[in-house]
Amino acid sequence: MRRRVSLVLLALAVFFGALAPVLRWYAFPRLAKIPPSQYQEMVLEAKPATLLRYDTMQAEQVDKVTIVQTLKGNVEESRRIERDAGRDVVVWDSLSYVQGPDGAMVSQIPERYVFDAHTQAPVHATGESVDGDAVRREGIEFKFPFLTEKRDYEYFDAQTRTSAPIHYKGIRTFRGLEVYYFEQTIPWTKVAYPKKMPLPGIDSTTLEKQTGTSRWYTTKRMFWVEPVTGAPVNGEEIHTEELRGGSLLGGRAKVTAFSGHVRMREDYVDHTVALVSANRTTVLLLVSYLPWGFTALGLLLLALSLCLEARSRRPEGRPPLRHESAPVSA
Question: Whole-prediction pTM value?
Answer without folding.
Answer: 0.87
